[in-house]
Amino acid sequence: MQTDASPQPQNPTNLPIWQQLIATQKSFPKTRLQELFATDPGRGQRLNVTAGDIYLDYSKNLLNDEILQSLIELARQQGIEAMRDAMFSGKPINLTENRAVLHTALRAPADSQLELAGHNIIPDVYQVLQRMSDISQQIRSGQWLGHTGKPVKNIINIGIGGSDLGPVMATEALKAYSQRSLNVRFISNIDATDFVEKTQDLDPAETLFIVASKTFTTDETMTNAESARQWIIGELGDSAAVARHFVALSTNRDQVSAFGIDPNNMFEFWDWVGGRYSMTSAIGLSIMIAIGTDNFMDMLHGFHAMDEHFKTTPLEQNMPVILALISLWYSNFWGTQSEAVLPYEQYLHRLPAYLQQASMESNGKWIDRQGKPVTYTTGSVIWGEPGTNGQHAFYQLLHQGTVLVPCDFIGFQESNNESSNTQGTHHDKLIANMLAQTEALAFGKPASDVAKDNVPDTLVPHKTFYGNRPSNTLLISKLTPNTLGQLIALYEHKIFVQGVIWNINSFDQWGVELGKILAKQIYGELTGQPPAPHDSSTTTLMQRYKNSSK
Ligand code: F6P
After folding, report:
1. For residue 463, with 0-12 CB atoms within 10 Å meaning exposed, 13-18 middle and 19 or more buried, which class applies?
2. Which of 145, 251, 318, 445 is positioned for an S-S bond with 313, CB 3.0–4.6 A?
3. For 74, what's the count of Cα atoms within 13 Å in the CB-facing half-sphere?
4. Can you tell me the distance from the alpha carbon of 332 to that of 18, in angstroms, rounded to the nearest whole number?
5. What is the dihedral of CA 490, 491, 493, 498, to 10 degrees?
6. Under a CB-based contact definition with an 8 Å cutoff, are residues 320 and 490 in contact?
7. Helix or strand or coil: residue 97?
């Protein structure tokens, strides 16, 4: 491993401010949100921050101005500003892979300059964007013809993890902006069901596969890509058909050629783009095809606007910093282990899944930047579902369960689908539900109030809401390509800030490797290779599978 020329955060628990926060928390549980609001009538007007089109209300959290100040001081003492500058300027802050972390360069203005090893990378970014735009326009206008001369209208992205979740999330989020005559689908799982179900109603002559893989070695993706190739060649009866039915998104030109995809149909990105931070790179081609170049560029502008906010705004008003610190306050000082992301927007139904990878693959680490085990909690479990569906599923636990789950509520002032009927207006009802949940979680309903409703004594405890359950509310003007970009960049930078404070490397993912190696070995054994020693559980399961499946 080479040495890092960038700043080095340390074990945060060694900082006096960390110890001070522990002491503060010990006295704080006695304070209730009810009192915080009652004794501070301006709290709701004060504890908020605006960045671009996003308004963050963080007043319904178990903290006060002093605690927030201490958390900001913690971030400052861990060198967040220096690390942020190191990231933006291309220092190799991904220590274990000796790589720069420059997803922010993917959405920098065309006339900006960013030198990496003496080479300005911004023109490279725009050259790829231009090629993406060209092919997108050809496909959207029906000019990209398949091998038999039919226009392509089915676009299937084959990829997994960062080469799938961002494009799926964004094409779903921006469906209202998409060209509906195109059928954009995603195959990720190595389970044949995914491939079969996504292709069985399609005409191969009208289908283009985008093989999306940073490494171009990921087993799931290469297996699905091979099935796609056989499907195309088998159905169209000519191996030359691959040229018109496959494009690749990758950093690995050699593997793309080896697979048989013409490098002219490869859209490049670079090792300084992490997989889970890659949706604004060539990996976003399926998004661009769905929504068009102008909308895609508008999404990049939204990302860039939040990048600039993060880069230039004092920590006290810096939205990603505040979001990160509030989350860290709960996980490190209150002992919470999960966070719910609750979009009140059907189009964002894949956002929680996207944020799961972004956050958990980045910050689920127990070894610090110096190679030592951490002595404190790092990454939280991220989960969620869109409102109002979640309300009828798991909100019971949020309101009356025994664990504390901080929540992010995300709502939009204007809907992309205004609709009302004699029952009322959908969007007003949706947002009313969101606000009601934040209020109910924070303030609850005490037993004394329940009793006033003529509730039988035996039911009073069951109907009591203790409240005091924290949440953030993100209120955004309207879901557009631009605001989606702002929102995703907000979470990217939140994750970065937390990783810096936890003194971990948010940009590697060694924890996924062991399973991949063992799967390869077990696959060999299931398909005829001599058995290797395993534990008795795994051996018995393998035996049982082999006996039943053949
Ligand atoms: O296995 C984890 C991972 O490496 C992710 O980090 C990545 O997003 C995903 O696999 C896909 O990798 P690739 O784009 O190289 O196929």
Report:
1. middle
2. 318
3. 33
4. 10
5. 140
6. yes
7. helix
Which among 136, 126, 273 has a CA at the least distance from the CA of 214? 273
Length of the chain: 550
pLDDT digits (tens, 9 = 90+) for 161-213: 999 999 999 999 999 999 999 999 999 999 999 999 999 999 999 999 999 99
Residue-wise pLDDT for 139-167, tens only, equals 999 999 999 999 999 999 999 999 999 99
48, β-bridge pairs? 57
| 3-class DSSP assignment, residue 198 | helix
Cα of 549 from ligand 1 centre, angstroms: 29
| Burial (CB count within 10 angstroms: exposed 0-12, middle 13-18, buried 19+), residue 239 | exposed
Strand spans (E) along 110-168: 115-116, 119-120, 154-158
Q: What is the pLDDT of residues 43-100, one digit of tens each?
A: 999 999 999 999 999 999 999 999 999 999 999 999 999 999 999 999 999 999 999 9
Task: Kindly list the catalytic residues.
Answer: 361, 392, 516
The C-alpha atoms of residue 386 and residue 479 are separated, in whole angstroms, by: 14
Q: Is the CB of 519 under 6 A from ligand 1?
A: no
Amino acid 20 reads: Q
Instruction: Label residue 271 exposed, middle or buried (CB < 10 Å: 0-12, 13-18, 19+).
Output: middle
What's the token pair of residue 457?
Answer: 């004594």
> Is the link from the previous residue into 221 a cis peptide, with omega within 30 of 0?
no
The response to whether residue 362 sits with its C-beta less than 6 Å from ligand 1 reads no
Task: Check residue 388 and give its pLDDT.
Answer: 97
Nearest to 501, CA basis, from 305, 365, 307: 365
Give the separation between CA 224 and CA 121, rounded to whole angstroms: 32
The token pair at 210 is 């985008």
435: left (phi over 0), alpha (psi -120 to 50) or beta: alpha
pLDDT (average), residues 94-119: 97
Distance 475 CA to ligand 1 centre (A): 32
Pocket test of ligand 1: the residue of 214, 222, 249 to mutate, having most ligand atoms within 8 Å of its CB, is 214
Contact 99, 271 (CB under 8 A): yes
- Which amino acid is located at 253 in the chain? R
255 lines ligand 1 (CB under 6 A): no
> Residue 127 contacts by C-beta under 8 Å, 6 or more apart in sequence?
none
Q: What radius of gyration, in Å, describes the C-alpha atoms of the chain?
A: 25
Distance CA(79)–CA(74), nearest Å, equals 9
The answer to whether 107 and 280 are in contact (CB under 8 A) is: yes
Beta strand 54-57 with 115-116: parallel, antiparallel or unpaired?
Answer: unpaired
Minimal-distance CA residue to ligand 1 atom 6: 275
Q: How many CB atoms lie within 10 A of CB 72?
A: 19
Separation in Å, CA 458 to CA 141, 399, 462, 525 = 67, 19, 8, 60
Structure tokens at 311: 């880069």
